[in-house]
Amino acid sequence: MDSSAPSDAGVEPLADANGSAADVTPPSIDAAVSVDATPDVAPPIDGAMAVVDATLVADLGVDSGSPRDAASISDLGADSGPVDAALPPPPPTFAEAVAAILAARGVPQITARFDEAEVRAQAEEYGGSVDFAEALDAALQSYLEDGSDQESPVALLEFAAGPPCDVGTPTDRVRCFLDDPTSQLGLVGAEGFPPENGEPIAENWVITVDIPRLSDHLHWAIVHRDGAVPAYNYGFN
């Protein structure tokens, strides 16, 4: 073998274009790993939960703009508009009901001395198809129109002379006498003078009237609680 053959130790390094020794260090392993530059577009966990939460909210009807909520609010009667306007007015009080009957008969100025508790007690104890309001109206009509008894208000007109109740029909004249605060209506019950002819209050509403400007008589109107007989009136002094 030729001992003059060159060895690895005598090999000269490669030179770059500038004559300098080139860096021939092999690349690292990391540099050889390819990098995935495609961005991760999978939905995040929070995003998925947002979808679920939105579904739950809709299912629970939390959205106050949904038709279900609107119907619920309507069902609760929160709207104070047409519903409230349709409510009927409250019934009249006892005093208002009496005043209305007096006015309808043309005697709004007469003094009415009725005890509401007594009226209710009689209605509960004795019953009957004719209530107090109907009895009062019937009694007034009898006083104004029925002169069959010689001591009724109509019959006593022949003894009354002079103004202001001296013109018109007998009914007009009696109405004139009644429509005055000095005239007084009452109900026979726990108090009051019982009727002269003894009619029982268990069967009748007994409504009295005192008319000082006409006479010194006390008058009773008898109204059967079941309407079995027509109302009538008479007087006594």
List the SSEs and their pairings:
Elements (H helix, E strand, L loop, with lengths): L28 H4 L12 H16 L6 H9 L6 H4 L8 H11 L6 E3 L2 H11 L5 H14 L24 H9 L5 E4 L16 E7 L7 E7 L7 E5 L1
Description:
Mean pLDDT is 78; it is low at 1-22 and 24-78. The protein is globular. It has a domain at 106-236. It is of the alpha+beta class. The chain has helices at 29-32, 45-60, 67-75, 82-85, 94-104, 116-126, 132-145, 170-178; strands spanning 111-113, 184-187, 204-210, 218-224, 232-236. The protein has a five-stranded mixed β-sheet, with helices on one face. A hairpin with a 7-residue loop joins strand 4 (218-224) and strand 5 (232-236). 33% of the residues lie in helices and 11% in strands. 22% of the residues are buried.
Q: Summed up, what is this model?
A:
The protein has 237 residues and is an alpha+beta fold. The longest helix is centred in the N-terminal third of the chain and has 16 residues, at 45-60. 33% of the residues lie in helices and 11% in strands.
Report the span from N to C terminus: 180 Å
Helix content: 25-40%
Mean pLDDT rating: 78
Unreliable stretches covering 5 or more consecutive residues: 1-22, 24-78
Counted beta strands = 5
* Overall geometry: globular
Along the chain, the helix and strand elements come as: HHHHHEHHHEEEE
Structural class: alpha+beta
List the total number of helices. 8
Strand order of the largest sheet: 1-2-3-4-5
Described by strand count, sense and barrel closure, the largest sheet is: 5 strands, mixed
Q: Please state the CA-atom Rg, rounded to the nearest Å.
A: 54 Å
Beta-strand content bin:
5-15%
